[in-house]
Structures are given as structure tokens and as C-alpha cells.
Amino acid sequence: MKRQKNRRLGILGGTFNPPHLGHLILAQAAIETNDMEKVIFIPCAVPPHKRISGLASAEHRLAMVQLAVEGDHRFEVSDMEIRRGGVSYAIDTVRGLREQHTGMELCFIIGADSLKELHQWKSINDLLPMCRFVTFARQGFAVSGLKPDELKLGPVWGARLLEDVVGGREIGIASSDIRHRVAEGLSIRYLVPDAVDMYIAEHHMYTR
After folding, report:
1. What is the pTM of this model?
2. Which CATH superfamily is domain 7-171 in?
3. Would you call 132 helix, strand, or coil by DSSP?
4. What does the DSSP 8-state code read for residue 51?
5. How do the domains of the chain map onto residue ranges?
6. What DSSP character marks residue 35?
7. What one-character DSSP code corresponds to residue 186?
8. Per mean pLDDT, which range of 49-58, 84-93, 151-160 is the poorest?
């Protein structure tokens, strides 16, 4: 009898300030390389690990993510962190998703820069057994030479996390660069979906 594969759900969190084509390419790569059924985009309310100047309102960021994924049945958007309010911690989000999607394997999608900071995440020792972390290479953050102990989470978890590092194409698009281009009056075409480009223009976002 053929063993049934675990159904996998990808989680892609972030500020999405604004969402760009790099986010969509990352989500697609996660689905293709890890056999996920879909990826849920979750805009945060307040980012826990960094403070961003010029952070657009949660309402705007949610609307832009919804526009960005519109028409792709593989992608969904959740406002759970925005509705929860306050600082958005992954442990709270994963607990909520486990209740909503029982029987599915949760896969938290992160970049290589976040992998080295995981040991600082709230309740990380509780979080690690609750979901799988899928790490993607990111420009400027080499992981090929990393050793398990360097992740500061013990040799077992360190080795497991490094096994789930995905190489391949790195997309050099950053939300901060997009905000800078808008402020300078430069085009952001080919960096964000057309609908997001129009939304930013219509609402006069990220201007000086």
C-alpha cells in the first residue's frame, strides 16, 4: 500500500511594505520545491525583529498583498496577525494555523538572513517542533558554509534546519529599494505586480 504524503501548507509572513515580485517568486519556488498545496501570505501588524521607517498602514499593506496574489489559486492571504494586533510573533501565528488546518504540515518560509536569527525568536524552542522551516538563499547571506552549532539551537535542530535550505535563483528585489524609487519619482514597473503599482500611485504612498 502506497504511503500517503503529508499535506503541506506554506506560511510567508512579513511587512509586505510593499509586496513585490520577489515575494511571489519565493512563494512559487516554495510550492515547487517542497510539494506544498498552497502558501498563505500573512502581513504582520507590528514586526517583532526590526523597526521600519515609513511603514504603511496595515490596511494598505493587506490590500496590496490581496491585489498581488489575486488570480493565483495557489496563494491565499490571511489578516490574522493584523486582527490580533500588537507585535506579530510567529509562535502565536503557528498556533492559530494549527487549529485552523489540522492534519497539515506547516512550513514556515524564511530567507537565509532570518535563519541566523532564529535563536532570537520568541519561544523558538516551542516553535521548532510545531512547524518546519524552509529557508531560501538570499543575496548577501551565505549559508553554504554554515555548521549546525552556528545556529545556536543545538546540533540536532541546527542540522535539521540546514537540511531544509533551498538554493537556486536569488531575487535581488527589496521593499526598501521600491519605497526609495517611489520617493525619487522613479518607476517601479517590473518590480511589483501592476495592480500594486497602481494602488501605490492612487493612494500617493511612499512619497516624500
Report:
1. 0.93
2. HUPs (3.40.50.620)
3. strand
4. -
5. 7-171
6. T
7. -
8. 49-58
